[in-house]
Amino acid sequence: MADFEYTVDGSIGLMRFNRPEKLNAITYEMLDIIDDSVRRADSDDRVRAIVVTGEGRAFSAGTDLQQLSARGSSTQRTEAAAREANPNRPAPWTFASTAKPTIAAVNGAAVGLGVEFTSQCDFRIAGESARFGWVFIHRGLITDTGAGTWLLSRVVGLQNAAYLLYSGEIINAQRAKELGYVIEVTPDAELQDRSLAFAHTVSKGAPLAIAETKRLLYQSIPRSAAEHVSYNAAALNRMFETEDFKEGVQSFLEKRDPAWKSR
Asked: Which helix (H) or strand (E) holds 58?
């Protein structure tokens, strides 16, 4: 059985860390499989959104420390990913690089690289057992993908991000909800079903429009307001030329569900 599994459930790409005996600690070999799975989902027109979760009692305990102590960090991989960034990718991180909505369905512990992967997702739904910890400072490190030091403050604010990163405190699901890090908390037994339903909700719109919206959302972060408005206007003009725009208007006028073409 693979350490990381990717299946398609209807219109949802379901990804699962699958080393429950190791609390889904992530090996370097898994990183390549994860990257490849995200690329496959991104290029598959059947897939409208991605849900990532963990098998067993943890989302992911982070990088496998036995490998980490033997081989060092994944910095070179992270830098390579950043160099691969292009105008069509929303952001350089694995789960933020896809144009499709991503949802982390967090069961149990998400720490280290595991919690970084949750930061890279657009949404986080937590099971009641979920725990989140940026524990890097307790290993003499900083966040390994840079998501914690770039994206986290955009989600929970600078002061809260600083506290989570400096203290390395592991917080529970309800505290994560209070901070705005997770969008909702659900019973563990309902986590996957709720996450799949949520994925359907946020992927009903025109795929091209969702992709452009996500790209603009992430790439607006370092831009000035004036720059962003200019990029937004250019993207909007591209949308006006798509078949999906015509279908969106026509289906509204005809009072029916749209049949998106992704073009």
From this structure: strand 58-60
